[in-house]
Amino acid sequence: RPGDEAEEAVPEGERWGAVALVRDVTELRRLERVRSDFVANVSHELRTPLTALKGFIEALQEGAAEDPATRTRFLDIMARETDRLVALINDLLDLSHLESRNVELRRTPLELASVAGAVVAMFARKAAAKRLALEQDLPPDLPPVLADEDMLRQVFINLLDNAVKYTPSGRITVRARAEPQEPLVRVEVSDTGIGIPRQHLGRIFERFYRVDRARSRELGGTGLGLSIVRHIIELHGGRIEVESEVGAGTTFRFWLPRAP
Ligand code: ADP
């Protein structure tokens, strides 16, 4: 914009133009920061298990391998760290696929009872091991939703995996409802677990954001599960929200389009 003395002479439209330009640059800077934070996070997340692996390899080379008990213990840790790396890389690949512009949705009419039911069955053993009740509350007349089956399965897997991880006791429920005139079906995954403190609720869908990094790591989390879930729901034209109370439990609620 020319000098301030010219302000009076600048027509209204051009003044708005200048404001918009400033905002664009700010947005670009923000995106650039988000990108470099992401690269820093990925590097850190990759380096942590690799550093551990390197340490155990050196210990084994320097003689720890001679004691069978130590050797077994170290190899178990190394196997776990390797699993963690593989899980992280798989999540990163999923996320980059979901964020690429040419991601293809193979949408078909799906019965939630069958997609959710299959995933619930997958988690039955894990839930039983913690004595958690794992329940489905799906009305028999629930209309089918229009979604990509693999992606919808991924949503249930990530949400149930978290529900099981972060629930020491009680129950996990998958619920769905459709209002007669509504074009969207509402789905909920709720638990009676540790809950999420209010100040974190707005950020848990961000990549690598965790309430308790050490606990998530201990439980084998990558910090990417919820951002993958949100991407999938939004690609389907739906949205997701979370409601939680510390010590009482958490509900993830999302909406998917009903099949025509
Ligand atoms: P992670 O791999 O760490 O579980 P997610 O992206 O799946 O990563 O979740 C991000 C964070 O949100 C978790 O680290 C945890 O702090 C919190 N969280 C997610 N689901 C739940 C839940 N059901 N109960 C309590 N906290 C949860």
Automatic annotation (TrEMBL):
- Under which EC number(s) is this enzyme classified? 2.7.13.3
- Respond yes or no to whether keyword Kinase is given for this record: yes
A Gene Ontology molecular function term of the record? ATP binding
- Keywords, comma-separated and alphabetical: ATP-binding, Kinase, Nucleotide-binding, Phosphoprotein, Transferase, Two-component regulatory system
Signal peptide coordinates: none
* Subcellular location(s) per record: Membrane
Protein name per the record: histidine kinase
Source organism per UniProt: Geochorda subterranea
UniProt lineage? Bacteria, Bacillati, Bacillota, Limnochordia, Limnochordales
Question: Which residues of the parent protein does this chain contain?
Answer: 190 to 449 of 449
